Amino acid sequence: MIPEIGHFALILALLVAVVQGVFPIAGAALNKPAWIALAKPSARLQFLLVTLAMLCLAYTFAIKDYSVLYVASNSNSKLPLHYRVAALWGGHEGSLLLWVFILNLWTLAVSFFSKALPELTRARILGVMGLISIGFLLFMLTVSNPFERLIPAAIDGRDLNPLLQDPGMVFHPPMLYMGYVGFSVAFAFAIAALLGGELDAAWARWSRPWTTLAWLFLTVGIMAGSNWAYYELGWGGWWFWDAVENASFMPWLVGTALIHSLAVTEKRGSFKAWTVLLAITAFSLSLLGTFLVRSGVLTSVHAFATDPERGLFILAFLVIVIGGSLGLFAWRATSIAKGGSFSAFSRESLLLSNNVLLVVAAASVMLGTLYPLFLDTLNLGKISVGPPYFDTVFAPLMAPAVFLMGIGPLARWKKAELPELIVRLRWAFLVSVVTAILLPLILGRWTPMVGLGLFLAFWVFFSSLQTLWGRLRLAGLPISERLRSLTRSWWGMWLAHIGIGVFILGVTIVKGFETETAVRMHPGDVAHLSGYDFTFDGVAEVQGPNYIATQGNLRVSCNQREVASLHPQKRLYTVQNMPMTEAGIAAGLWSDQYASLGESLGDGSWSVRIYHKPMVNWIWGGCLLMAAGGVLALSDKRYRIRHKRPGQQKVATV
Amino acid sequence: MKLRYKRASLIGAAIVAVALAVTLILSAFRSNIVFFYTPTQVANGEVPKDASFRIGGMVVEHSLERQPDGLTVHFVVTDTVKHIPVSYQGILPDLFKEGKGVVAQGVLDLEGRFIASNVLAKHDENYMPPEAAEALKRAKAAEATQTPGTAGSKS
Question: For testing the chain A interface, which of B32, B125, B134, B155 should be mutated: the one with the most A CBs within 10 Å?
Fold first, then answer.
């Protein structure tokens, strides 16, 4: 009965979405206040219905109702409750429901926090989000219904893929989807502005907090995924340039460009058309990501669903959304007024260069991700494009972007003076260069990539400090006064940039100084790696809720002093009879010691892989700082006050 | 006039920069493509001599031999027509099993042995790596066309 209620709620939600998608937009065009007024109530009603469907599915998982196909294929009676609930988004159908639920969450948020918006604009925004919802609800109800019954019912479920039975599964997908789907708000704002023909500073200011919020969720989501891969896959990598990772990284790159472009549009009124294009692109890439991951076109560890019909539906949906929005853009873009002019060297031009670099980087990721699929579809052969391609392309594209990032915040709008900037940044530059040369020599290994990475990281730190110092040194006021004059959105930008530096530092040190070894270990054997001794104490059997594990015990010592013990496991999930490696990690600020068990080699000895990962946690720490910067920017008070006169701009501070 | 000149030079610089980036991307792309071959193609000598490539197929039952060092393994990959011996040093993925699909990346040595630098098996018991499935399919198709007399299938 409960699954049928959920199914019915989805059908009703589709009907409500049609009302929400059609009437407000048509009403805004035909000037019918009654139609426009439907936007808010229909958005809220749809939210309630989709939430009801979510709850029904979660309940079905919780009570182990294996007469529902999706539940039977993605969970098992032995699965602990939190994983049974997280299994809701462990497969194709459920993750679509999560997508729609999160879309409705964003829509609901827009309906509440949009009091400052003109009613017509709000109606159009909610309408566009309703249209997106129609696509996904139709998709679910036609080809991927999570409530489909299984007759006769299964005695027990096939279990959630053991790879997904991890705390990461509880956080990573919802966070990532919050980011993906969050770009639908920026998209809806852009489409609404195109429809209304009002692309102005007010539009940019309204979009900014929503875009920042989506971006910070995406940042945290990608970070959580990377961290999960690091400890789950057992080979110590944190980024594989896997197609699914790329699918989330492309919207991030374009979203980052969008945040910066929106800043220019708000402050200076320039880049309007470009900003709209970026908003459309960011959301299109999010849809493409959903398509890539959820249609099974990829030969990747994440592609669990394999069904061409679904792929065709999403492809058609993509064509309609992207084609429609670009068509609208082409039709309306001519009416967009020109923004302020700027000289060849100014904060605008620096931000534009950063935008171009980010977009080119996203395009290069897209080429490496889609080209193999493209060849395969046309039967022109099977190829794969590995990490070396992305590594080769990425560093030269991102290095200038990061370098410019140090200059941008110091440069003036409209027209900046190069000599003045050189004077102000000369010490930051010199200190970064010297550090980049000396530090690796102290650490014992200098390569061009290590040098470049360290230079960029320290360049970010020192130029940011220089920027802060410049702000605090402004004429005449006491320090406390000047500190107060810096807005939270300025601090947010500052912190996010520092986060990039921390991230680069972590990546550089890990890539340059990590060590690993694969050894055959007998109980009592000691392996040496980077000054650490790893003593193998043999293995023991451990019984988990739905698996049995062989757990290795290793003692880690440094200078005769025991510093940690590692417990890597080799698990066998009994339901699917699937082996799984669980790494043993001693995490630390300065380095991780990491071990994973290979195979039993008889006579009590095992093959063991041991890694020393210096400063690997700085990678994720940097991402968290970026996200924290986003939070700070959002808390800026200028987003909280109502703008009674949307045409008037505040004094530029960022 | 001056403004127009400035704008033209700006656009020119942007075009040069983007062209540079595209050249870089495409050359990196070309040198990092890894092609896929079936064991039959490997046996027929259709594979590159100096570049690394991928092979896919099934691991032949009872072909897995562990060398005395405990870390080097030898096994044989087949598409049911041709057998290719593979050597790999390192720890095999969780789902590596005899009789199951596998994809390996590496180079061919002078004696026709495939020296794998990377062995991939997928994270699902029932899931065959697409490359491995493709190798078996092609071998079957080749067999079918060989019976009437014409050999070879389009790769």
Answer: B32
**Amino acid letter, A314:** I
CA distances to A372, A385, B76, B138 from A382, rounded to whole Å, are: 7, 10, 22, 13
- Cβ contacts of B131 on chain A, cutoff 8 Å: 299, 382
Sort residue A540 into left (φ over 0), alpha (ψ -120 to 50) or beta: beta
Judge: A382–B123 Cβ closer than 8 Å, yes or no: no
- Name every chain B residue with its beta carbon within 8 A of the beta carbon of A296: none
| Closest residue on chain A to B8 (Cα) | A344
Q: Please report residues of B whose CB lies closer than 8 A to that of A344.
A: 6, 9-10
B54 has a chain A CB within 8 A of its CB: yes
Domain boundaries, position A64? 1-165
Q: Are residues A567 and A506 in the same domain?
A: no
Contact A593, A564 (CB under 8 A): yes
Q: Which of A403, A440, A480, A478 is nearest to A614 (CA)?
A: A440
For B53-101, the pLDDT digits (tens) are: 888 888 898 888 888 777 788 999 988 888 999 999 877 877 788 888 8
Contact across the interface for A599 and B36, Cβ inside 8 Å: no
The 10s digit of each residue's pLDDT in A428-484 is 999 999 999 999 998 888 899 999 999 999 999 999 999 988 888 766 677 777 777
**Do both A531 and A440 map to the same domain?**
no
* Tokens encoding B103: 């994809």
Which CATH fold would you assign to the domain B36-146?
OB fold (Dihydrolipoamide Acetyltransferase, E2P) (2.40.50)
Report the residue of B33, B69, B118 to disrupt the A interface, i.e. the one with the largest count of A CBs within 10 Å: B33
